[in-house]
Design goal:
Helix 3 links the parallel strand 1 and strand 2. By secondary structure, the protein is mainly beta. The strands form four sheets. Strands 1-2-9-12-15-18-21-24-27-29 form a ten-stranded parallel sheet, with helices on both faces. A nine-stranded parallel sheet has the order 3-10-13-16-19-22-25-28-30.
């Protein structure tokens, strides 16, 4: 069940319904030690790809637990998730806080200036913050993708602040519970040169991907679904591209504020979104994409090229229900 969120936006509005789309939830993964051994021993060509942008060498660290992942989060590190088990970041974070390993991010209401992995309290738990780190890859080697989950609905799953050269690949990220929430799934705050590929960002997060005053973000083959407000929120973002992505079964589609520039979607699909589809205060381009939206046909600030657009409902109450 998608959770409710109340946000005021000034923009063009296009609402949507569902057509053969289903928001997926994570099922428990059976333990398979033999598969994990094979994953740990596997070698991939992605090691070189992850360091190409920055030119810096990365230390390769294989992790099987959430605790190992959090401790491995350092600059110049390629973290390979070699387990098919779900990793509960909240449990590991709480343990490290109790042990005094993790420091609080805000001190006297001011953010810390040193780089590292921190925490900050939220209404129903603690939220993870990665700040000031550079040249990090987090990649799941399992064919089933690696699952990074958090328990508090008010916590972000992953928040990067002032980070550079970040690669996230083949990951499923979301919240373990549904209900009222204010936490997003993936947040990029004042980051540069970020690649998100082959990932799934799912609710009950308010927003699937939140790019806040970041630049040079490339999202490829990634799905944003089941979020209570928007699949994607862009604020003060520049040079953000989406290629072969899916935005579906969210409370809304895309929000772009007035301070964004050079935002593009290519070969992507939008369907089953219940709220605003394109709420755009800055110009964006949508190419070679399929759009199934059925309310308020205005698309100001959106340039469509070679798109299949279906908009066949004129009133909000006509929008069919979609399955969570």
């Amino acid at each position: 069940m998608a959770c409710a969120a109340s946000v005021m936006l000034l923009a063009c509005v296009v609402l949507a319904s569902c057509k053969n789309g289903k928001g997926r939830t994570n099922s428990d993964m059976d333990e398979d030690d033999e598969d994990e051994t094979e994953l740990a021993e596997a070698t991939t060509e992605d090691d070189e790809e992850a360091t190409a942008a920055s030119g810096a060498q990365q230390n390769v660290v294989d992790v099987r637990t959430a605790r190992e992942l959090l401790l491995a989060l350092k600059s110049d590190t390629h973290i390979r998730v070699v387990t098919i088990q779900q990793l509960n970041l909240t449990d590991a974070l709480d343990d490290l806080i109790d042990e005094g390993v993790m420091a609080r991010y805000y001190v006297n209401e001011r953010p810390r200036q040193d780089a590292g992995v921190f925490w900050d309290p939220v209404y129903d738990g603690n939220s993870l913050i990665v700040s000031g780190l550079n040249n990090i890859t987090i990649e799941a080697l399992s064919d089933e993708k690696g699952s990074l989950l958090v328990t508090p609905s008010y916590a972000d799953v992953l928040r990067f602040v002032n980070c550079e050269n970040i690669v996230l690949k083949n990951l499923i990220m979301g919240h373990k519970v549904t209900g009222y929430c204010v936490g997003d799934v993936l947040v990029l705050n004042e980051c540069k040169n970020v690649s998100v590929s082959g990932c799934e960002l799912f609710g009950c997060g308010v927003n699937g991907l939140h790019v806040d005053h970041s630049t040079q973000v490339a999202v490829t083959g990634t799905e944003m679904y089941g979020c209570s407000f928007m699949g994607v929120v862009l604020e003060g973002a520049r040079n953000v591209s989406f290629d072969k992505c899916k935005v579906f079964n969210n409370g809304g589609g895309i929000y772009v504020d007035e301070h964004c520039s050079r935002i593009s979607f290519d070969k992507s699909k939008f369907f089953g979104n219940k709220g605003m589809l394109f709420s755009c205060n800055s110009a964006i381009t949508v190419k070679n994409s399929d759009i199934e939206h059925h309310y308020d046909k205005s698309t100001a600030n959106v340039s469509f090229t070679n798109c299949q657009v279906e908009m066949d409902y004129d009133e909000a109450e006509d929008i069919p229900d979609y399955e969570d």
